[in-house]
Amino acid sequence: MAKSKGPSVRERRVARRLRKWRTDVAGIPTLEPVASQLRWSPSKLSRLENAEQIAGPAEIIALATILGVDEEERDRVVAMASRESAGWWLGYTPEIVPNALADYLETEAEASIVRNVETMLVPGLLQTSAYAETLIRAWPAPSEHAIAERLSVRQQRQARLDEDPPLPLHAIVHENALHLPIGGREVMLEQLDWLLSRAKQSKITLQVLPIKIGAYGGMGASYHIVSFDGDEAAAVYLDRLTDGQFVEEDDQVETFHRNFQRLINVALDPDASGERILEIRKGFT
């Protein structure tokens, strides 16, 4: 039997919000008083707060009412829970878009900003087709159809950078990634030129971590911080060899957020980063 897809990041985020309503807004540390008022079992409330059972609008409104949640917050969570996923990624097979990636693509599609750290590769949202194709072909014996499909997925993701309004992106890439000759000279020249072009967009911030800084906190870690509702960090996505992993607990997400802020301070600023990319480009001419 195929493994069923668990709750999405959005659904888990709704569940965490319900738990915060009880513990932080109403200041009720246990499940029983709330469940009793609603004539629910404590186990049902626990399932809703842990996304083991997906909360519907009626349940969210009932909880908001007895927990004293304001209407704006209540309506925002109801809208989040009611949103039906009809994303473009559903048109691809699980071989091209596995469950973990589909979950990330839904998250990225709804994000208000993405913050990305890359240590070995150009960020996926900023890769050229030739650069991305070289990476895809490096896997054992991919079919031409699979290559075309995976390139299409990459292009669909990148389209958000050109929407109105565009997706804000803050990318920090280690200088080592820009020296690796992925695809050879011509591919790298095109890729570096594309980075310089993209970096001119008002909603894209690109910084380079220079080799000369040596060791830094979180060295070797690549990750995406995906945020919603302004500047609220909702989840961190980590790429792995065969799938991906989400980090969602607030204290862990905050650790990644603090690391990103430290990297902003040790990386070259956007202008100096552009100058460094031009210097690296000269090495490929």
From TrEMBL:
Pfam families: DUF5753 (PF19054), HTH_31 (PF13560). Residues 34-74 form the HTH cro/C1-type domain. One of its GO terms (molecular function) is DNA binding. Gene3D superfamilies: lambda repressor-like DNA-binding domains (1.10.260.40). This is Helix-turn-helix domain-containing protein. It comes from Haloechinothrix alba.
